[in-house]
Amino acid sequence: MSKDQAYLIWSFLVLALSYSVPYFLLEDCKSLILYAFWLVLTVTHFVVSLVYLKGREL
Amino acid sequence: MNELLAAILALALYLAIGTIIALISRRMGIKTTSDYYVAGYKLGGIIAAISYAATTYSAFMMVGLVGLTYKTGVGAFGFEITYLLATIFILSYAAPKVWKLAREREWISPAEMVGDLYGFKSLAVLVALMYLIALIPYASAQLIAVGRMVEGMTSGLYWLGIVIGVVAALIWTGLSGMWSLASTDLYQGTWMIAAAIIFIAWLFLWGGTDISRGVTSLGKSGLLGMSWSPLVFVSYTIPWIFFAITNPQVVQKVYTPRDEKALRRMVSLFAIFGLTYTVIVTLVGLVSRSLTAAGKLSLVTIGDQVTPLLLSYAPLPLAVFVFTSIVAAAMTTMDAIILSLASTISRDMYQGYLKGSDRKAITLGRLSILALLLVLSYVAYMKIGFIVDLSVLASALLLPLAPVTLIGWYTGKRFGKIGGYSAEASLISGFAIGLYWALIHGARKSLVTPIFGIPTTLFILMVSTVIALLPLAKR
Predict the structure, then answer these.
(1) pTM (predicted TM-score)
(2) Per-residue pLDDT tens for B44-92?
(3) Residues 1-58 of A with CB under 8 A from B
(4) Residue A25, Cβ neighbours under 10 Å: how many?
(5) How many whole angstroms separate alpha carbon B452 and alpha carbon B410?
(6) For chain B, how big is the Rg over CA atoms in Å?
(7) Least CA distance to A51: which residue of chain B?
């Protein structure tokens, strides 16, 4: 699997999680867990994207 | 009197600094249309990043999104962060390819890009028309936001806001095109983020222990869970997921970084800016709601009034600083749209068909900026209801451009003429569905009124994608 394919799969997974977790796991949460989930997901995606962007040839 | 004086001083300072920056940017020298519209493909990473961010984040953030979070809870954060997740992906994955192609094929306007990708000239004109119809209302809404902010700061001088917006846009955009736009964006973006950081710090200090008391009751009222229905969430997020592909004012920014390093820096700094700004804005909304739950802040029924109410408790210098940052957010978005639309008029319509010289095209671009600003100021001053309402639909109306552009980026001219016709049919169908639905249900309601049980924007995207992919099936 190429880096591009891996990153593509990763990004679709991130978007799928952004849509599904709030409804399937955290719909009725009473604390800031849902907020934290989206925040951690974004920071992780940012770090992965940064690594991908640095490693790819333009 | 103190408040009025402070507001006028802050606005005067803001305008003076911006104008000095725009005047300095004239030194870059404008000879060709690429100099004027894409800064000769020579922007540094930091300036490109802040310009991209300031263009993206409009007055909606500090006014609309604060209110939306206040009223609907954490779901509003999800709505905005899903945009950011998708944009980080698009910029990391596709932007390098687009950046490279823009240099090779000397793209200046995004409509020109789409036409060139399919080798179909009339497609560029169709895309240009779509931009004009969809983005004039969106840009008008930004000018209205400038008017309203100045009206709030000066106790009633709405017209002054319109005049400030038009004059500043004319100088900051018209003078040196992308050079003056990006330089003033850097300055305004810095103002926006600095004001946001100081605002949230003050809010936490002011709220004190009432915030944690209020957060507990927010949990009980369901505002910390997923309070948005799947239909609304999907309908609202889909146009924003593709915003980086469909909106010319940001697509054009991807052409501008001077080298690979600047492009990488643009993507990473934009993401940092976007995440910081989104977190701050949504925290302002959540903290305000907590303070209402704790009894420190009265209940606000109109979302857009949350920020003005909070600022009425803030020290005067902070209040004018934040109000001016909202003016800056609206200005940066409007300026970028105006320049992008002007590039479409002078490049796709004038140079594309009449083969005009660069010098004449730049003059026409400046005249287009003036004409567009006159149209916007008329709409904003008269507050023409239907046009203003259409602004919420801008991204939905541009949505058909997503499949057409993506197919163009990755398959190019392989489909020949049939590809061009399919692309045109795809754009017309998606655009017509969005406009028809808005005429039937009203612009705002049309977004949350499903078509055959499918969220409106998803339906538009599906229809456009299927039609745009038809040549693939034929093969």
Answers:
(1) 0.94
(2) 999 999 999 999 999 889 999 999 999 999 999 999 999 999 999 999 9
(3) 4, 7-8, 11, 14-15, 18-19, 22-23, 26-35, 38-39, 41-43, 45-46, 49-50, 52-54, 56, 58
(4) 14
(5) 31
(6) 22
(7) B92
